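Internal ticket - ligand job 260, manganese (II) ion:
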Amino acid sequence: MSLPAASQLQAPAHWRSVDLISDLHLQAQEPETFEAWQTYMDSTPADAVLILGDLFEVWVGDDEVPSSPFLQVCRDVLRSASTRLHLGIMHGNRDFLMGPAFMASCGAQLLHDPTLLRWGRHSWLLSHGDALCIDDTDYQKFRQQVRSPAWMTSFLAQPLAQRQAVARQLREESKAHQSSGMGFADADTALSLSWLKSAAASHLIHGHTHRAADHVMTEVGQGPCHRSVLSDWDLQTQPPRAQVLRLTADGRQQRLPLVA
Ligand SMILES: [Mn+2]
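stdout (structure tokens):
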């Protein structure tokens, strides 16, 4: 696949660090995860926070915000952070209906999936990661359907209560799939390498799979490529998980655990 020019993010020369997070799955029923995220957003010294998808557990339309105190508090955390750092948000598979109105209300830039972050001599290809999990053909068919402008327009035209009911049903189906033990597809190595090749980059960073790890990928005729997977956040599990991947201008990356 080719990468359109719009999907590039050029880091200004004065940036010293960029934080990457994803898969927080924020929801009112899990206040501990929200609080850890709020504390982090209020205190990070980074020049930019790039959220690579699934910040929210579910998003059925920007018009839910006025009736949701929880979403309003989340918006305020984002807006407050955006006054002192660059805030970029990429759609995940659960919150891809976040629209321009919400982005504007929290001072965020919508990041295309994928986005090439260019910073001095270094570059990183950023993605949510679900589009790379091509072994799950049922999911890819579903993704193609729900990401089509026609589907999104007709879904958003439904009354809010109806959209919330559809989201609840999808969530039950997803839980049933998880407990069936069928497992989840992982990011495909060949496709990851081909994305990197099109972007002329050698480092891919994504979330979605909740399998935080650093992989080295090699292919004949191509130098070593790297795939870093972000951690999800869950403060209610044991041991709790909350982690930031921090990039610095010298091309290094560091995983910062936010819980002991
Ligand atoms: Mn996801």
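Auto-summary: The chain has one domain: 5-132+187-257. The pocket of manganese (II) ion is lined by residues 23, 53-54, 92-93, 128, 130, 208 (CB under 6 Å).
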